[in-house]
Design goal:
This protein is mainly β and about 120 residues long. The protein is about 0% helix and about 50% strand.
Amino acid sequence: QVQLVESGGGLVQAGGSLRLSCAASGRTFSNYVMGWFRQAPGKEREFVAHISWRDGNTYYADSVKGRFTISRDNAKNTVYLQMNSLKPEDTAVYYCAARRSTVLSIERYEYTYWGQGTQVTVSS
């Protein structure tokens, strides 16, 4: 059974940084795409970034491009989201998700497995 466990959220001032981690277990993920999504209060869950576990290809939402970096550690079966220059509008619950495919996708309904989420709050 696939399990995704996020960690690393917290409270940070605007301009600060956080690194989120997503520990994946229960499967060999070499043919998976791993994504980060976020959901702010009263808003729909939106795509943030994703990475192909096989070749490391990445893609970012325009709102985070140049500030966030997604990466993976194959040995640890862990995906990271380094978030720099944080803004109050980045405040949300951040979710890690897995999709059994080598094709990148920004659509949340194409991701089968989800973590429980971790809260990120950016104060102004």
